[in-house]
Amino acid sequence: MAQATDIGAAVPLRRSGRWNQRTFAPWLFLAPGLLMFAIYVLWPIVQSVTLSFYDWNGLYNRDGAFTGTFVGLANYRELMVDPAFETSLWNNLKWLVLYMLALPAGLFIAIFLNQTVRGIRLYKSLFFFPFVISQVVVGLIFAWFYAPNFGLFYLLTENVFGQGTAILADPNLVTYGIIAAGLWPQIAYVMILYLTGLNNVAPDQIEAARLDGARGWRMLWYVVLPQLRPATFIAVIVTVIGALRSFDLVSIMTSGGPFGSSRVLSYYMFEMALGEFGFRMGYGAAIAVVLFAIMMVFISGFIWKMWRDERER
Amino acid sequence: MVHKIAGLAVLAGLLATTSAVAQQRVVTWNTDYDAGPLAAAEALVADFEAANPEIDVQVNNFDREAYKNAIRNFLTADPPDLANWYAANRMRPFVEAGLFADISDVWADNGLTEALASSVPSSTIDGKQYAIPYTYYQWGIYYNRDAYAAAGVPVPAADETVSWEQFLANCETFKAAGIDCVTTGSSALWPVAGIFDYLSLRTNGYEWHKRLAAGEISWTSPEARAVFAEFAKLQPYVTANHAAIDWQDAAAIFVQGRAANYVMGNFAVAVFREGGMTNENLGFMVFPEITPGIPRAEEAPTDTVHLTSGAQNPEDAKLLLAYMASAEAQTKWNAALGQLPTNRNATVDPSDPFLTEGFQALSTAEGGIAQFWDRDADAEYAKAGMEGFQQFLVQPDQLESILERLEQTRLRLYPQ
Fold first, then answer.
1. Does A166 touch chain B (CB under 8 A)?
2. Does B64 touch chain A (CB under 8 A)?
3. Beta-carbon-side half-sphere exposure of residue A179 (alpha carbons within 13 Å)
4. Residue A205 sits in a domain of what CATH number?
5. What's the structural domain count of chain A?
6. CA-to-CA distance for B231 and B182, rounded, in angstroms?
7. Model-level pTM greater than 0.95?
């Protein structure tokens, strides 16, 4: 800013032209992005929020007219007492908390793999492999793993405990079973983030710490981890978002069952708005708005932190 | 995607009409068939075109699951003349939005109220007909004779019905032999509704069941509790972990003889046969009587074709609909489908024992023909119900909370 006024003062004649250029140029460059953002992000948000005040089955009549009716806050009032919504909310919380396990696990594997031995590249790519496979495939693999009668996990528990446990048929275990499936690729993702982070750890600081006698946990906690802060920050963001938007695994592995015990908000929204027995667009939109609000809490937190970091620089 | 398909169809239609006989009139028909039924429908179309050379019928087939969403778009955006869908409550939203056309005249002009008598209620909304039912299939108990032999349980004779007490006693024997008495795979929910429907129909009768599906009966009423009391008797004998498998997985258990009975629809016979079962070891019986003296009702979901309100060529489309309803067309069509014709004058392939027995069971069901829980009840109510049935099969001790939740759903959807 100071610089800008200096130049302005030095060239008073061209001041207004400069000023215009400096004001408009950024907007010109931003325009395509902003336009896309407005059309594909902002406008749908406005539409979803509007729709959440309507009762609509998704049909237009023959003349193409909207057939919904305005119901005010009725959808939200119904959400408040809907046991399925409560289940979904709790399951989302379980996802959020347990998904965080991907951080320590990913860090551990990253440190383990951060060495120079023959063929380490191959090992790294093998560990990264789960993240490369589609979530749908991950879901199918784990569904077979848990499958009663022939699944590996089922046979294992049958051999150990005498009676097999069909995780996906048990309303108390099913969510944990799906989270475990989700953690598999998520750990790989976090691992790769930390591996790149570890590349940037300053060797001289490690050296200095070693001379001062730091080893093991203390070295990790006081020397390595602080330098991994940017990686941790990104890892937390992708893990939180990954947990909140968990949809594919639930859909593939259980369709929210048994009797809705493994629903999460995003799947419940899909069920209500677009599922075979749903087509309650307004109610689905209301769930989406709630999910959006929850995500906004985290996203604003991240943006605030990023903004603060930028300013400190 | 949908628009693309529809667009291609339109393009194909244009090409066909311009290159072929110019004065040919086109009827478009959107369908959701798998390969076998699609071939059957094409055979029907070929017969119709042979009889009406001036009409060209264009079948535009969709993936079955995708169709459920696609129909909501194409009925407004790009309506065909005819569209596949289902009878009873499942067609109600489209009728109420004015997207399906009233075809009472087709029914009246062709004497269909007589010929399709058993399907009149499920095709009618507010006194008008909106559907042509062309096929249905019975539900009932399919049993594995080998499993019966392995457990030493006498196989029910052809014309003898098993009593409910006897059935449950057999279950005990099966359990002792390590065989599941009744199998099902409920990960998709609907298979459990088949069991519940039969328990409900046999305990309280068709009229009561219909009112339950319509939300007129309290889930905490003594009659509803009576149904769940019978359900509780059956519960210990149903395949464990059914909630994690789908119906084809349960079919495998049944085919391998690890389960003796399967409450299913007739479409499962094809799967049983693929698994290696033959008429020698596969049997069919109607669900046992529970409350004595109640007129026997059966489940037979009906598939239908509808005239859309935006049809370009409704006159010729109605000709095709009338043809679909006729006895000779339905005989041939259903023989290819392996299902039952809805026209009472049509005939069933006598060499297929399951179709013959099913036709027999349905035509003598004096109690009535139910569509199936998810077609008789409104979508949201149906789903809540099926989740309750599945939960009861997994956690029978939760009966009170299940009934309470279902009752709350009922009061919300059907304010008293």
1. yes
2. no
3. 24
4. 1.10.3720.10
5. 2
6. 12
7. no
